[in-house]
Target: Golvesin/Xly CBD-like domain-containing protein
Amino acid sequence: SSINATKISTADASSLTWHDFTPFGLDGNAPGVATIGSQATITMDNVTSVGYFYETENTQTTKDTRSGSELIYFSVTAPAGAPDTTAPTPDPATFASAPSADSDTAISMTATTGSDATGPVEYYFNETTSGPGATDSGWQTSPSYTDSGLDASTQYTYTVQMRDSAPTPNVGTVSSGANATTDSAVTVDTVTVDQEANGGVWNVLGSYNFGTGSSDFVKIRTTNANDHVIADAVKFTKSGQSDVILDSEDGSGITIVGSWTNSTYTSGYLGSNYKHDGNSGQGTKSVTFTPNLPVSGTWQVSMNWTAAASRATNVPVDISYTAP
Model:
C-alpha cells in the first residue's frame, strides 16, 4: 500500500529520529517516485513504516553525506483509509453469561466480547420492562453489568447492544431479550435461648420457610451473652423428609468465627464433643449451621446443647430463611 510523505524543514528535522529510504530502494529517482528535490509531497509504494525519512537530491543515501547537495526531509504518515462503517461483531450482540440473580436485589450478566477495527467497543445493557428499581447501564467499556436495587421475586428482562469508537459510532443490533428473576427476600429472625436448662434434648426454635439447597442458615452468636455459650448441633425436620442434622464437628455446612474450645466435660452433646466460647470475646464469635436441604418449604428447627449453671441464659440464635 502507499503512504504519504510531506517535506519538512531542516530546522524542524534536527531533533528527530530518521530512517533511510535505502532499505526500500527509494532514492531520488526510484521508479514510481517523483524527483524528490522538486516535490513537497511524494507517494512511496510498498512502505508500511510511519515515521521520518530523509533523502538527498543527488540520491546519496546517508544522512551525513552532503556532497554539496541539499538534504531533503520528509514526515511520513499513514494514509487516511476508508471510514469504518461496520458495527462490532457479533451483530446482533449476544450474552456470554445470561442474566442471573445474585440475590434478592441484584442481577448480573456478561456480553460476548465485541470485535471491531475502531476500538474500544462499548456495551449498553437495557432492562426492557421498566421493572421496579431497574437501571440501564449506559454506554460502558466493560462487557459485564450488575443491576442492583431490584425487588425480590421479580422477573426482569435485559438486552445488550454494542458500538465502536469511530468518529460517528457504528451501533450494532440489539440482542434478544433474556429473563432473570431475583431471589426471594431473605428474613432473619433472632431467637434467644437459655442454655442453663434443657440440655441433651432437641429444643424446638420454630418453623421457617427454607429454600432448596444451602441458601439459609442458623447462626449461634455470643453478642452480650452473660456466660458461656455452647455450640453443638442443629436439626431440620420436615414431614415426608429425612431429618437433616448438622453437628459442630462436621466438615461441611459449618462456619466457625473466632476461638472456640472443644469439650466433653458436660454430657448431653451430639457426636464426639461440643464447643464453648470460653465466656470471652462476646460479640466476636459465632458458629453457623448451613444445611443442604433437598426440598423447599416449611422446616422445623431444633437445637441441642449441654446445660450447666455456667451457661448463658440469653444466647442469640439467628435464623435466616426465605420469606414466604
Remarks:
- Residues 106 and 148 are 4 Å apart (CA to CA).
- Helices lie at 10-13.
